[in-house]
């Protein structure tokens, strides 16, 4: 992107989010799942903006949404007025009335949460929608196997409009892992306690594990945003994000000159350095220091030195036509979120969610 003619911007780090691509990805996942498919928009839509994304997917026909916290649910509720909206992290003490007020479904994961929700619904004289999370191996949230029969007691559930029983996969992106089949078997036994309740199973990668992992509601997040749900194989998702940073200065370094905090890079020969206005406060992770690259007109500019709070430095020797004010690509056609993650020693999820911090966000179509 050569944007010399654009009006002066107040930001030097620009994230573009392609809502049409996210909508296309949702359709791809739904068609692949062959059954109803939700959208996970927690963490502000994986850093990309939960409200515009949820509104776009609602317009596309998506009617089930997930966030992690009640505060996130309340923020997105007005954009998706009549959709099913559930909070994955469960029902905090004292929060039941707030859930009921905004028609937000808690994902219940302990007997205490079940009892709290049931008694709150009965006290309000109405039934409240909820999901039940059963643990099948993650050991984070969800009823342990030993509590499932207790949780299925109809007296205990009185007042609860139990919409789905769900579980969450440990290693869905690794189809060869035996834990997938083990979780499948444990989930089937748990669901046998709830013969008439629909099920919710696969996340993004789980959708690609095959028909046995189909349920009444898939819960993809990452793949909507273009992260590859099938690592090691071709990415079936459309790219949805670009990230550009503005070049603030170009400097000519002599052999022996060092760059940035702690002088972790030293020029071996004369070189041209581009200083870009993005740093870890924008979510460009410090673990990119001396790893990865940006691109300008397809030319690779290796990242040199430490990523600092507001600045990142690149070897621009190969791009003599680069000028101050130009925008260089950090995520885009030449470097996917998964590529950036590999350079930074993390996953695409962390690369995207980190960008929620300070970048300017632009949505297309406008
Ligand atoms: C975050 C989350 C998802 C979405 O997972 P992706 O791998 O991003 O598709 C689904 N279910 C639960 C319980 C989650 O926490």
CATH architecture of the largest domain: Alpha-Beta Barrel
Q: Report strand %.
A: 15-25%
pLDDT averaged residue by residue: 96
Low-confidence stretches are: none
Structure report:
This protein has 366 residues and is α/β, with parallel strands linked by helices. It has two domains: 20-225, Alanine racemase (TIM Barrel, Alpha-Beta Barrel); 240-364, Lyase, Ornithine Decarboxylase, Chain A, domain 1, CATH 2.40.37.10. The chain is 27% helix and 22% strand. It is built from eleven helices and 17 strands. The chain has helices spanning 19-33, 42-46, 50-60, 70-76, 96-101, 111-124, 145-151, 154-157, 179-191, 337-344, 348-354; strands spanning 13-18, 39-40, 64-67, 84-87, 105-108, 128-133, 160-166, 199-200, 241-253, 258-259, 265-266, 271-276, 293-296, 299-302, 312-315, 327-331, 360-364. A seven-stranded parallel β-sheet has the order 2-3-4-5-6-7-8. Strands 1, 9, 12, 15, 16 and 17 form a six-stranded mixed β-sheet that branches. A hairpin with a 5-residue loop joins strand 10 and strand 11 (265-266). Helix 1 (19-33) packs across helix 3 and helix 10 (337-344) crosses helix 11. The chain is elongated and about 80 Å long. The two termini are 18 Å apart. It binds pyridoxal-5'-phosphate. Pyridoxal-5'-phosphate (PLP) binds next to loops.
């Amino acid at each position: 992107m050569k944007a010399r003619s654009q009006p002066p911007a107040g930001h030097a780090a620009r994230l573009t989010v392609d809502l049409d691509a996210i909508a296309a990805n949702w359709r791809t996942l739904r068609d692949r799942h062959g059954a109803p498919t939700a959208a996970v928009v927690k963490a502000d839509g994986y850093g990309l903006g939960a409200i515009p994304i949820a509104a776009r997917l609602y317009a596309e026909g998506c009617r089930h949404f997930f966030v992690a916290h009640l505060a996130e649910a309340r923020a997105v509720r007005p954009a998706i007025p009549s959709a099913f909206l559930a909070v994955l992290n469960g029902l905090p003490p004292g929060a039941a009335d707030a859930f009921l007020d905004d028609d937000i479904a808690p994902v219940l994961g302990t007997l205490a949460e079940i009892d709290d929700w049931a008694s709150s619904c009965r006290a309000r004289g109405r039934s409240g929608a909820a999901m039940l999370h059963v643990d099948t191996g993650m050991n984070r949230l969800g009823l342990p196997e030993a509590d499932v029969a207790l949780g299925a007691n109809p007296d205990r559930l009185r007042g609860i409009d139990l919409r789905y029983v769900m579980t969450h996969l440990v290693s869905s992106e690794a189809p060869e892992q035996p834990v997938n089949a083990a979780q499948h078997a444990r989930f089937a036994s748990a669901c046998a306690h709830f013969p008439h309740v629909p099920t919710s199973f696969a996340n993004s990668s789980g959708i690609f594990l095959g028909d046995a992992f189909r349920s009444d509601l898939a819960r993809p997040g990452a793949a909507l945003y273009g992260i590859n749900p099938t690592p090691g194989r071709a990415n079936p998702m459309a790219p949805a994000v670009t990230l550009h940073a503005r070049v603030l200065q170009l400097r000519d370094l002599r052999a022996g000159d060092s760059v940035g905090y702690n002088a972790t890079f030293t020029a071996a020969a004369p070189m041209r350095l581009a200083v870009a206005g993005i740093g870890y406060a924008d979510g460009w992770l410090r673990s990119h220091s001396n790893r990865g690259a940006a691109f300008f007109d397809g030319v690779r500019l290796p990242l040199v030195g430490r990523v600092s709070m507001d600045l990142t430095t690149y070897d621009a020797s190969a791009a003599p036509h680069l000028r101050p004010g130009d925008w260089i690509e950090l995520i885009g056609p030449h470097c996917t979120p998964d590529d950036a993650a590999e350079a930074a020693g993390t996953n695409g999820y962390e690369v995207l969610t980190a960008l929620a911090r300070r970048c300017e966000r632009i949505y297309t179509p406008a």
